[in-house]
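Quick log. Single chain, no ligands specified.
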Amino acid sequence: MPRAYSIAEARDQLPSLVHDAEQGGRVSLTRRGKPVAVLISVSEYDRLTAGRTDFLGALADFRARNNLAELDLGHALDDTRDRSPGREVDWG
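-> predicted structure:
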């Protein structure tokens, strides 16, 4: 768990907190006791954001790597949505 500091405390100790982050530590910054930000090293940030893509990009990558016809999913691809009308709702 990262150490937590209020923003005011972090302002007073910023050089040491940055040094800790550079060494691989994580520092949670809080406002009124609630976490609002995390201080991490650039290498950790790069690791966390490397190769990120949106959903459509991930789906396109998946489809490019996998031939869905060869997976033998049968009708699962055609019938993935439940088309039943659902339950009755009493609005009264």
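The chain is about 35% helix and 15% strand.
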